[in-house]
Write a structure and sequence with these properties.
By secondary structure, this protein is α+β, with helices and mostly antiparallel strands. 63% of the residues lie in helices and 16% in strands.
Length: 356
Amino acid sequence: MSYLDRLVTKRILSRIFLVVFVFFGLICLTESLDTWRFKVLSDTQGQAVAILAIIANAARWTIKSLPVTVLIGTIIALLDLQSHRELIIIKASGISVWRILRFPIITLALISISISMFLDAKITEVNRSIMPSLQITTQSVGGKNQVWLKQYSNGIEYVVEGRKAGTKVYELTNVSFFFPKGEKYSLIEAKRAALVEGEWELSDVILSAPSQPAKNIKSYTVATKSTREELELRLASSEDFTFFELKNILSAGIADPVAQAAAATRFAKLLALPALLVGVLLIAFAFTSKYKRTNSYTGVIVTGVILGFVVFVITEMADRAGSSGVIDPIFAAWGPAVVAIVIGVTILLFIEDGLA
């Protein structure tokens, strides 16, 4: 690595880290305003754990906002190089923008891979260990603890409705199983249902069938293709799983299409994060590295803020669409990254080698 590579890479990374730190501080301040959660965690697990919860949750949101912070940080670094005429001197010496970009791209890609596979995993584990019960109740449908699940078994599709049993992820209470026409029972109700290998184990059961009196029995089993990992994924959130946990769950197979889409999108987003950050780095260079006669950069700063907002909105919209199964998870995760790279490279080609 030459002195030029060290200079540009250090300047860009230092400004990115500064912007990330500022965003992290603002998010910590926002998280600290949730006084109810802080009080609950302080009373149950101690004040130190409550503070750690704020830091861990802020770190999670900071990782989600990396495309924005990397874009803004890179623009600030390039404006710094422009204001001191360092970028002009570098270009005047015959060095192309592609040469300048080489080491910043490599370094940023390596850092983002570490974030996707290791740092995000550690933050996820900390969040889960601090407040698992709060995370489990974040993705309910209907009432506060109400759950609706679509289940499959032997070519039959049925629906399960119940209530979450506190921190016991694999159990539901006050459960109702709704079966299609032609099945032996149309409705099965139970006080409690526990998911074991390949079936639901029900206790205190009421079996209902058309034109027949209801039957009360002590226990009953209902076959299912769902696994405990799939149920945990369905009741919690795909963001509560690490990169390698998602890899194992997807490899084992998921019967529920909603859970499958959410897990696949989350996994693909972690894989695509390095490409997305490289893409926003290219966009920052494309809009900022061009020579300016004056030191007025108001327009560039406004453009950077707008671009950061657009990048964040597009990635979040694609994430929601992929997690809900509206679009393919691979396209949802890799689409914004590929588009960002294409836009950045195209503009740089036009500026450096075109007619601009």
